[in-house]
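<goal> How does this chain fold?
<sample>
Here is the protein in question

***
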Amino acid sequence: MTTQSLVFDAVEEPDPGLKWQARWQRSWPAYRAWFIGRGGENGPSLQECEAAMARCMPELVPVHRRLTQLAGGGELEARFLSTWCPPAYLGGCSIAALAAGKDVRLVRNYDLSPDLNEGLLLRTEWTGLPVMGMIEFLWGLSDGINAAGLSVALAFGGSKRIARGFGVTTILRYVLETCGTVAQGLKILRSVPSHMAYNVTLADRHGASATAELLPGGGARILQPAIATNHQHGSVAADRPGFTRTHERRDHLERLLASGIAPDALGEAFLVSPLFQKNYNEGFGTLFTAVYDPASCGLTLRWPGQDWHQTLDSFAEGRREVNYRGGHQGWEDFRQLPAADPVAALAAVRPYLSPAAGRAFDHWAAKSRVGEPDWADFGRIFWR
């Protein structure tokens, strides 16, 4: 039975540290089981993974090394985090980008089971450039934006074929860490091989936009208009096109853009059928709508009747729970619940702790902000 709710966390950590480590510790057991169960343990060696990253995404090598340290430094963890030749994974999604003068929007619907999304919006400065986006595979991105005003989002390309390449979420991370324009992003997408077929849409603050159909093993078709669903041009048929309604959704997007819709109205159009999906029990419901505004470096996460707005310059940590019951979405704002922030309530004791206990409290507080508080661990602070 599919989980009927999903908690979304907004977390800010400029450099990889305790907050990311806490998320890793919470999520790694499930990812480890998936990775081993899908044959990842028998994949490329650590040396091959590190060589591929150094060759294709050298700017991410120090980040990968630091994350591996935070994950415990094991070989399996390092190979998983490299995402070089990972097991197959699928998804859904609809995307469109539109500009009218300086008014630019990139909008995406993320369609999947609530069981399979991390629900994490993370703001970082891992290579110096501020980036925020929705996390996949603990450090990759399904969509995001950077301080240069470049936004990007992915959709499954409809083919289960696998080839030698990186997981696409790491490629999106690399684009946002190193690029400032659509042209620069497309250069990366042409050169860094994806292990599966994915469609990636980009938009920048200058009004440029495009969609790249990434081919398994490398190469990309660059297309206009800048829209994407779950199939690609060419001879490879889409996986389950009737179930995903991929052709219907693409046709709808083409008509929508041809109608002359304004960029700032695009997000509202993604909240209704056929773009908005309600098949949660079968793993294909819209978990969130993300509206990116490159001019303000802003993101609005949308659900029917509710918005959650963030910008890179005024990012606010917080938590939301969205319920997906009976095909409908409900909303609960955890910031209004007094029990939601035990760290704030207990921080008053921090000045009275010994140096060792203070460090232990800081570690406990960071973990609590991205997961359920471990009260036994809290009690052990006072043993120091």
Remarks:
- Residues 341-384 form one domain.
- Confidence is low (pLDDT under 50) at residues 333-340.
- The first strand starts at residue 5 and ends at 12.
